[in-house]
Amino acid sequence: MTVSVVQFGGSNCDRDAVRALRHLGIDAERRWHEDGLPADPDGIVLPGGFSYGDYLRAGAMAARAPIMAEVREAAEAGVPVLGVCNGAQIGSESGLTPGAFTTNASARFQCEPVHLRVERADTPWTAAYDVGDVIEVPIAHGEGRFEIEADAHEELVADDRVLFRYCDEAGNVTDEANPNGSTDNVAGVLGERETVAVLMPHPERATLPDVATSTDGAGVLEAFS
Amino acid sequence: MTEFTATVTVRLKRGVLDPEAETTKRALERLGFELSALRSADRFELDLEAADAEEAETRADEMAERLLANPTIHDYDVAVAER
Predict the structure, then answer these.
(1) Which residue from B minimizes the CA distance to A105?
(2) What are A's interface residues with B at a Cβ cutoff of 8 A?
(3) Where in the cell is it found (chain B) (predicted)?
């Protein structure tokens, strides 16, 4: 298993993702987007950053890069794909997952630890947790507010595809615990397959000991092990 | 072929929060202006050659669908004028 961490111009969490994965004993390498994916990719991470300077909309340009056709094809074939932060924006812009991530309700860039409630524990991304577990993972984004049309959101909830919701330390999903005004406190969602997920918070920044206040994010990356 | 300018205006759908517009409105009020609402939009002017206005509009429409707008949060309109 070698995870391909796709690097676009302006990605800046690609090294962190590789380092966090390797720390968990998972082989990972950065893959420049123009070089395409390896022939049989084992796993794909769309990392955080500011691809193409967030021009037009965060993730809009990278989502239309040729490598994303390969990523979509791999996702449809069951290859695990994880989008984090800018990678989540790229994932939703490319149609891998429903909804959109847009300007925080605060209109500010927010860089802070948040709490997430685990809403599904039967996916590869959350097998390390139980439903209702509260994990601490940092966010760092200006455009992380999850927006989705009302009927599409109903469908998303009915299909049980919300993976994480912003919550307080005790696990209560409240407006106060919603850092960016996301619809229904949604922090992460699944694609059509459970092997595809995007989330705004950074699990790779809560994996290595001694660099963050928690290592709670490791469980998400363990999906690749 | 005729030269056209297709103007694509992309705006947030009604009901979608626009924190940048809210911030801009507050800044105008701080300057002493009175206004009840402010909406912002992105405007793209596309110069292109097409057989007729209809073709120019179709192509601009495709560009909006594929990239310029995100259908989850945006509405858009296209206006074509001969250049």
Answers:
(1) B19
(2) 56-57, 60, 64, 92-93, 98-100, 102-107, 145, 147-149, 152, 181
(3) Cytoplasm
Cβ contact, residue pair B67, A56, below 8 Å: yes
Mark yes or no for CB contact A105/B17 under 8 Å: yes
Q: Considering its fold, how many domains does chain A have in total?
A: 1
Interchain proximity A145–B17, CB inside 8 Å: yes
Beta strand segments in chain A, E: 2-7, 27-32, 43-46, 81-84, 100-102, 110-118, 134-141, 145-147, 162-167, 186-190, 196-199
Q: Which of the listed CATH numbers 3.40.50.720, 3.40.50.920, 3.60.15.10, 3.30.1280.10 matches domain B2-82?
A: 3.30.1280.10
Mean pLDDT (whole number) for B73-79: 98
Cβ(B7)–Cβ(B53) under 8 Å?
no
pTM flag (> 0.80): yes
B13-50 pLDDT, tens digit per residue, is 999 999 999 999 999 999 999 999 999 999 999 999 99
- pLDDT at position A210: 85
Given the residues A13, A33, A85, A93, select the one marked as catalytic.
A85
pLDDT tens-digit map of A46-59: 999 999 999 999 99
Alpha-carbon span B59 to B81, nearest angstrom: 14
Task: Tell me whether residue A73 is one of the annotated catalytic residues.
Answer: no
pLDDT tens sequence across A138-151: 999 999 999 999 99
Angle at the Cα of B44 from the Cα atoms of B39 and B45, rounded to 5 degrees: 135
